[in-house]
């Protein structure tokens, strides 16, 4: 997949040189405490970055991740990816941005560019995403990029605070095109 370039970002394949920056945000206390991901060791991170650098998403299933690089800082500050269902044209997207870059529109910019690339290059028909109901920033981001809420998974995730509800969002390629969001 080609790099996507926005005003502030480059959405690109990860590189081995991203290791330190990747571990910094992936193991950041506020990211890990959210419960969506587990802390990652150096060897596992190195292996994941190498696998993702060479991953061909066409016709494959599994996790396909791109690095979010801040253009001015020439540094990986997060990731955006899609879990591709093999033999279907459906994907489930997700993202992580270093907490130092929260509340700046970085995630919206990155996810919007990635969604456009996924629809254009991978020819997916449908994208979905889910987040905890209390993760207001994530569900508002999904709405900003044109996704619609399709449902609520009641008490679908357990964390230290108890059982949490999740919102399910979706976007069809036809909706992306119709809403003029395709870039």
From TrEMBL:
Annotated organism of origin: Acidiphilium rubrum
GO molecular function, one term: acyltransferase activity, transferring groups other than amino-acyl groups
Keyword Transferase included in the entry's annotation: yes
UniProt xrefs under Pfam families: Acetyltransf_3 (PF13302)
N-acetyltransferase domain ranges (all copies): 9-174
Keyword annotations of the record: Transferase
Record protein name field: Aminoglycoside 6'-N-acetyltransferase
């Amino acid at each position: 997949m080609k790099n996507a370039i926005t005003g502030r970002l480059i959405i690109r394949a990860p590189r081995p040189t991203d290791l330190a920056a990747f571990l910094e945000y992936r193991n950041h206390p506020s990211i890990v405490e959210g419960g969506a991901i587990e802390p990652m060791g150096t060897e596992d991170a190195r292996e994941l970055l190498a696998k993702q650098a060479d991953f061909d998403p066409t016709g494959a299933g599994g996790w396909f991740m791109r690095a979010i690089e801040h253009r001015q800082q020439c540094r990986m500050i997060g990731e955006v990816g899609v879990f591709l269902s093999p033999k279907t044209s459906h994907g489930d997207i997700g993202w992580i941005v270093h907490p130092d870059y929260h509340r700046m529109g970085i995630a919206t910019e990155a996810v919007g560019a990635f969604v456009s690339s996924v629809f254009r290059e991978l020819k997916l028909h449908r994208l979905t995403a889910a987040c905890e109901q209390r993760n207001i920033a994530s569900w508002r981001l999904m709405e900003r990029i044109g996704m619609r809420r399709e449902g609520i998974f009641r008490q679908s995730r357990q964390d230290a605070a108890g059982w949490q509800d999740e919102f399910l969002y979706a976007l069809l390629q036809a909706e992306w095109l119709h809403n003029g969001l395709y870039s």
